[in-house]
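Next comes this protein.

***
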Amino acid sequence: MARLQEAGFGALWLDRRGYTDEALLTQLRSLGLPEIPCARPEIVIFRLQPQAPSGVPDRKDPRLLPHWSAATENPPPGQPWLLDLGGWSPAERASGRIWRWGRREARVGLDWAGPPRAGELRFTVTSAADAPLAIRCEGRELGPVAIQGGQRREVRLPCALAPGLQELTFHYSGRLRRLGRDSRQIGFMVENLEWVPRPE
């Protein structure tokens, strides 16, 4: 709440139809935030005390960025938040799978709240054509991954994390194509992306 008020927000609006976590409402009420009466029972509005003068929100604040998986749940303990920094098609899902398509370049944010930690990236990749996929974290190359068009490949790459937000970049130099009736021009797909810490 303090960060919202520092940014100049004067109220917090919750719609029960889209967010049904009663525990959150209980937590907000426990903070003593006054509620603004609303004639619609599905809407709950809490009044905030904005800072004067209000600050300008930082659009790069990780808490304001969309999740790469498009899910709202917290990451497993000991793992960073995976954030969508641009270049991806919307997340797609099937049983036990989450994947996103990119064209030439797409970026993921690794938001890590812990101390420096060694670990590795794990994901499955495929592409529209035979081509290398260059992968970098904060400008340092983790490795080009050779991929064959239409073939799935399991990838594991060493990737150490420092505290804060780090940018992971995927760059594909192969040709783009459409798959079946899909109107998108796609280059590569990343599936079940995760960062796993190295055992201490």
In short: The chain has two helices and twelve strands. The helical segments are 2-6, 22-30. The domain at 62-197 is CATH 2.60.120 (Jelly Rolls). Residues 22-30 form the longest helix (9 residues).
